[in-house]
Amino acid sequence: MFWDFFLFVIIGPLIAFFIYYLTEDRKRADKYRAERDRCRLIF
Q1: Which residue windows are transmembrane per the record (predicted)?
Q2: How far apart, in whole angstroms, are the C-alpha atoms of residue 7 and residue 15?
Q3: How far apart are CA 33 and CA 37, in angstroms?
Q4: How is residue 29 annotated by DSSP?
Q5: Cα 21 to the chain's mean position, in Å?
Q6: How confident is the model at residue 43 (pLDDT cuts 50, 70, 90)?
């Protein structure tokens, strides 16, 4: 019982933060790719 609660409290936020970080990283990469494509169109 205690260990289930402990795992839920410790692992839950870690997994949520990891998923959030991955999605933010992908968004940042997409934005960077769009900027690079726009610069390529200009030159």
Answers
A1: 6-23
A2: 11
A3: 6
A4: H
A5: 2
A6: low
Tokens of 14: 């870690």
Determine the Cα–Cα distance for residues 9 and 1; give it in Å rounded to an integer: 13
DSSP 43: -
Polymer length of the chain: 43
Kindly report the three-state secondary structure assignment for every residue of 6-24: HHHHHHHHHHHHHHHHHHH
CA 6 to chain centroid: 24
Q: In the block, which residue shows the tokens 């402990």?
A: 6
State the average pLDDT over residues 9-22: 90
